[in-house]
Specification:
Length: 145
């Protein structure tokens, strides 16, 4: 069992199994939402995710569509402002901000994404693959087929 919580502890969740990808996203919106050089997140199948408490604290901000739908949505705790997973939704997986994990997920980051728009003041110094927008969309297209 992997437990996670927001900064104030009002939103708590449990994960039975984390899956790939575990990505470090450098896009501008993720940087703004995280307040950092990148946003670390991993995927969890919806059936492996359980919100333990704090459903009423979860708020959503939907940013305007820039190019093509869907819009960028970010979920956060209404009390402390921490980014939190969206327990609702219709996708098969839940995106979990890695910084919320209280336990080791037993997986590590797979790759950096949107490196073509990363912060100029941040240098990637690890050996993880670095995908720009075109490479990422190409990869995701081949994974769907």
């Amino acid at each position: 069992m992997i437990r996670g919580s927001c900064f104030c502890g009002g939103v708590r969740f449990e994960i039975t199994r984390a899956v790939a990808p575990f990505e470090l996203c450098h896009c501008g919106r993720c940087r703004k939402a995280s307040g950092s050089a990148f946003f670390a997140w991993l995927l969890v199948k919806r059936e492996d995710f359980q919100l333990v408490q704090g459903h009423g604290l979860i708020k959503t901000f939907e940013a305007p569509v820039r190019e093509t739908p869907p819009a960028y949505c970010t979920n956060f705790c209404g009390r402390c402002g921490s980014p939190v997973p969206n327990p609702l939704g219709d996708s098969q997986c839940v995106e979990v901000p890695a910084g919320l994990l209280d336990d080791d997920p037993q997986i590590r980051p797979d790759r950096h994404i949107f490196v073509d728009v990363k912060s100029s003041w941040f240098n990637i110094s690890d050996d993880l693959p670095q995908l720009d927008r075109a490479a990422l969309f190409s990869l995701r297209k081949t994974q769907r087929t």
